[in-house]
Amino acid sequence: MEKQKLVQLLKQVAQQQTTVEQALDQIDNPGFLDLNYAKIDTNRLKRTGAPEVIYGEGKTANQISGIAQAMIAQKTNIMVTRVTAKKAAEVQQQVPQLRYLAVARMLLFKAALPKLAVGSIAIVTAGTSDQKIAEEAAITAEMYGNQVERVYDVGVAGIHRLFAKLEVIRSAQVVIVVAGMEGALASVVAGLVSSPVIAVPTSVGYGTAFNGVAALLTMLNSCATGVTVVNIDNGFGAGYSASKINHLGGDVQ
User: Fold this and answer.
1) The pTM is what?
2) Which residues span the membrane (predicted)?
């Protein structure tokens, strides 16, 4: 524990604002809560500005419920990603405070309002099939206090649809482009806007799309500058990174 915090804690004990036992718990706090099957990083909010996020895929409903209950007790905002509707229903029976968003496949709980960023984030998809990944990015960004503009189904097969929405896209502080198949949309958008572009390849596509590898390689090899690429189907990662960039522009006072 830092010296300044230790002095403050000792003063609270002296003034009977906290008990000796409570003070010892804070001093001995290892920075995580051990549930045996999971170790919740209780210091992540202080270190990074954002609390730990629960990756739901591969975890049982009971495990998700246990982690969520522990985090609610810590009065922390909660996001659980990659949760099927069936698993979400099982979790909600144990933790009814959690809200499920089916398209994004996320469970949410808000204990506190986030700091609101001044700028907005535009999320652009090539097709409707990319929407579940786009919504994961959108909900993530909104949970971190960002205004999100959704521009869906404007892929290169009908490029006039993109041009019709350019004003909205260009007004954003950050642009997230979500595309499968050959993934060309990210390069097109990056060549039309001044904002940083975060590209998300999706596993949408036939045979040689290779479950998103083709789109990933296209985006990594983009000739347009200012494109950063996250992993295949990683809507959460794109939304988180876009939020970090957007908040650099300042927060609403």
Assistant:
1) 0.84
2) none
